[in-house]
Automatic annotation (TrEMBL):
Location of region: Disordered: 103-140
Lineage of producing organism: Bacteria, Bacillati, Cyanobacteriota, Cyanophyceae, Synechococcales
Protein name: Prokaryotic-type class I peptide chain release factors domain-containing protein
Start and end residues of each Prokaryotic-type class I peptide chain release factors domain: 9-134
Family matches, as InterPro entries: Pep_chain_release_fac_I, Pep_chain_release_fac_I_sf
GO biological-process terms attached to the record: rescue of stalled ribosome
GO terms for MF: peptidyl-tRNA hydrolase activity; ribosome binding; translation release factor activity
Family: Belongs to the prokaryotic/mitochondrial release factor family.
Bias (Basic residues) ranges: 122-140
PANTHER family linked to this entry: PEPTIDYL-TRNA HYDROLASE ARFB
């Protein structure tokens, strides 16, 4: 089952690794025998679908979510493995789509206004006077 990110980007199922484990939380008698927790692992470096530019953008925008250049996503919201798999695919595709579409806005450098400069200098002078008044009188 291939994962459709955009009209032009489709990740083949062989590039996505699945891992299943027992989910925490309620589940009654099934909690100790059914592996409903789903984990998706997608290695950015080994991907043949993504070009170098897309890989670089994903590395920058997903740097907090990457572990060893792999995007890992775990879902355990439902008691059913199939529902968790579907939800994981939806979340995974939205994360990648959002990271690829995210445009980093560059800060336009500006100069401080005259009023803000004067305000800053007045504050510094006021603060200096306060500190000066706390000092002991110097006697020579």
């Amino acid at each position: 089952m291939d994962l459709i990110i955009t009209k032009t980007l489709v990740i083949p199922s062989k590039e996505i690794k699945w891992r299943f484990s027992r989910s925490s939380g309620p589940g009654g008698q099934n909690v100790n025998k059914i592996e409903s927790r789903v984990e998706i692992i997608f290695n950015l470096e080994d991907s043949k679908v993504l070009n170098d530019y897309q890989k670089a953008i994903l590395k920058i925008n997903l740097k907090s979510k990457l572990v060893n250049n792999s995007l890992c996503l775990a879902v355990q919201e439902h008691r059913n493995q199939l529902l968790n798999r579907q939800l994981a695919l939806i979340k995974f595709s939205s994360i990648i789509r959002g990271a690829l579409n995210k445009s980093s806005k560059l800060r336009k450098s500006t100069k401080p206004t005259k009023a803000s400069q004067q305000k800053r200098i007045e504050f510094k002078k006021k603060r200096g006077k306060l500190k000066k008044s706390r000092q002991k009188e110097k006697t020579y």
